[in-house]
Design goal:
Two copies of one chain form a homodimer.
Chain A (H helix, E strand, L loop, with lengths): L6 H11 L8 H19 L4 H13 L16 H13 L15 H15 L3 H29 L3 H17 L4 H11 L14 H21 L15 H4 L33 H12 L8 E8 L15 H4 L3 H9 L18 H7 L2 E5 L7 E8 L4 E7 L6 H16 L1 H13 L7
Parallel strand pairs in A: 1-2
Antiparallel strand pairs in A: 1-3, 3-4
Helix pairs in contact in A: 4-5, 4-9, 5-6, 5-7, 5-9, 6-7, 7-8, 7-9, 8-9, 11-13, 13-14, 15-16
């Protein structure tokens, strides 16, 4: 048992179950000496700038009611709000994605801007300025770190996101360039997050970590904190220690052009692997090419990597439904709202009309297709066949994107709240309400 | 200028100095959509367990006056106290070191135990139990990660320290094994810190980060947070992503024997590279072999790596004095307290008796010596010569260690405070006062 336990489980057993008598050992005498030594040294160091700045930062945070939380009326310090709101924003994994770094920028940056705009009393326009700075910064730093960083196991959303968060926070807190350099350099020591947490609560928590990191380092830098300016690209810096690719081209045109513009929004409340398929099918449906009782056959072709991800042939639960090409296509054809969270239920999996269409779907592997592509074909009983290829990298026109975001937010929070949110954001006159 | 600027400086310029009009661009329309999307998705996700647990953790912290800070009468939440107190404890770089992982264990673990013992009302004995658990955990995890981890650029004090901090915190908060496993696994996503910050405030701040990390993950795990148990030793886990050596031998006998016992305390308020030299010289002085006006020559042999670290031949400032074999040896022979912070002044560098002895010192390179070793020779005018070799890995007997910690703390905080601290810790009856 112990042999097969994970290291974390073995350490936990040691921490929790080591009997008190085993801790009465010669090492305990050394613990006493180390406690005395620690306290004496810390007291002697209490006026050192790093000790003073860090202490004053936590004291200044103490009891502040600055920033709003999703899901509570109580306000908390900005760092705390950013931690919780980042986790809330990524909890459903339904937020936006930038494929330049396979990261989720908004769930890290927006909590920083919302919390600090409330804290500082910033105008809405300053909030959106800082948001664009941070979103752009996260995307470009993520692209600079490159795929090697992500492939080794780092969660770019949180690692690259921390740098963007520091940039947004520095702008909203009014730091100068030297202070901002210290904030960005310091966050190299805080930027973290592992893909091995995917499938656990760790993943959304990472977004909150990054948001909170950005605020913390900006507060410290504003108070005079000094860090190493080469901590990103220098010797033993973040790129060297975190498998960064040093893709300097990622910074071309920074300040003039904005790669954040290519961010992708999710329009279906299911696995991202199903999205290109649903988009292709949606176009056939819109053309009148997929009338439920006239369909004879449907097929989807996709990259083989999705066969292990979202190709459950006959799902029986709501969760499984989110990972099934066949079921999702049946739902779409029947007019269910694939953007709504509550479409994916246990019950829907056994509705006869859904099961009937589901069983008409053939899933094909085609490794000439990119991971962002799907090809969908629908053939009706008269032999008419329509085929559409869709690539998630094909950006939607702004008007279509706007319409779909409006529809998505209405399906998530209701028509009235969605309209209110829309009007507020588009006007840039007051800060958004969480 | 821009070409030679660090990446952090370039990002800072973009963040601070991009004019507002450049931010009125097509990407701003996408920022609006992403803000709407973020808020709608976060509101919809607010009852997800990860969102609820994280929110409730920060709400529970709000305004608490649980834990003491060095240097303030105000109490703050435990996470906040640990952040500041870890930084204070490492600000002077005068705290203990464990060479199994080249890490500073106490400045990470003691703040966790002190803050949580106050928060939970734990008995002093429980504080020392949890301290030993965390100190041992940090040391063993550090040894498991190995030198490769440190050599690549990770600051083991903070990285390995975060795991020990999670273990200490879990024990004091009364988590069960399953919850503690989640805490330890989750901290794999938080454990960070780069050696490239050495020489800046970043280094001591790392100790506070690690302490705070440990408390945060334990609070979350106690409330039901789920993480990936294989996040240390599994696929894309901490060891794989952070150049860990997987030295499983590091865990032999865990729970029965305690490698923390080998921790080393610093007894001189100068560069660690001078310590073996000062210890060897101290033994000659104690034997009466180094009487100032009878000395003809002194020499020290040491590993070549220290030539670039602490071999300033003729220092002129207090800071330089801390990095000078020659000056430190002169101070020791003349009876100055090399443990006291205020011994190392600009003035001392030009005192004639100090300069006279300093100029009798010859510094030799000997790469057959380990980095922890020095060989010191003193020859007097009658031709009598004494040579002592000292290795920092030679552990002092407990009684000598106790006497020297008592003397060090008295020189740092005064006799009365040091005596009070000593009595308090040794009695294990009440929590130490910061």
């Amino acid at each position: 048992m112990l042999g097969s336990a994970t290291l974390a489980a073995r350490l936990a057993r040691f921490a929790v179950s080591t009997p008190q008598e085993n801790l009465q050992c010669p090492a305990r005498a050394i613990v006493h000496l180390s406690m005395i030594d620690f306290i004496a040294v810390a007291r002697a160091g209490v006026d050192e700038p790093v000790a003073r700045i860090t202490r004053e930062m936590v004291l200044a945070d103490e009891g502040r009611e600055d920033a709003s939380l999703f899901g509570s009326e109580v306000r908390v310090p900005a760092r705390a709000a950013a931690l919780a709101n980042g986790a809330a924003g990524h909890a459903l994994d339904y937020d936006d994605t930038h494929f330049a770094y396979v990261g989720h920028p908004s769930t890290v940056i927006m909590p920083v801007t919302l919390a600090l705009a409330q804290t500082t009393g910033a105008k809405a326009s300053a909030l959106y300025d800082a948001a664009l700075i941070g979103l752009e910064g996260a995307s470009r730093v993520g692209a600079w770190l490159g795929r090697a960083h992500y492939q080794l196991g780092f969660h770019s959303t949180a690692s690259a996101g921390s740098f963007g968060a520091a940039m947004s926070a520095s702008r909203l807190l009014g730091l100068n360039e030297a202070q901002t350099t210290h904030a960005i350099s310091l966050v190299a020591s805080r930027a973290s997050g592992l893909k091995s947490q995917f499938g656990t609560m760790g993943k959304p928590y990472h977004a909150g970590m990054a948001a909170s990191n950005g605020i913390e380092v900006a507060l410290l830098a504003k108070a005079g904190f000094i860090s190493r300016s080469s901590a990103l690209d220098g010797e033993q810096g973040f790129a060297e220690t975190h498998a960064g690719e040093y893709n300097d081209a990622a910074f071309e045109g920074m300040g003039e052009t904005f790669i954040f513009e290519d961010v992708q929004h999710k329009f279906h409340a299911c696995c991202h692997g199903l999205h290109a398929c649903l988009e292709a099918l949606g176009r056939i449906i819109a053309d009148g090419g997929a009338v439920p009782d006239q369909i004879e056959m449907m097929s989807v072709s996709t990259n083989s990597r999705f066969m292990r991800v979202c190709n459950i042939a006959s799902p029986t639960t709501g969760l499984e439904a989110k990972f099934s090409f066949r079921l999702a296509m049946a739902l779409a054809v029947l007019g269910y709202d694939t953007a709504a969270l509550d479409t994916y239920t246990d019950e829907i999996c056994s509705v006869p009309s859904v099961v009937g269409l589901r069983d008409m779907v053939v899933v094909n592997v085609d490794d000439t297709l990119a991971e962002t592509e799907s090809v969908v074909t629908v053939r009706d009983k008269s032999g008419v066949q329509k085929t559409v290829r869709y690539d998630l990298n094909d950006l939607l026109p702004l008007a279509e994107k706007q319409a779909r975001i409006a529809a998505k937010s209405a399906s998530l929070i209701g028509d009235a709240a969605a309209q209110h949110l829309w009007d507020n954001v588009m006007a840039e006159q007051t800060l958004p309400i969480l």
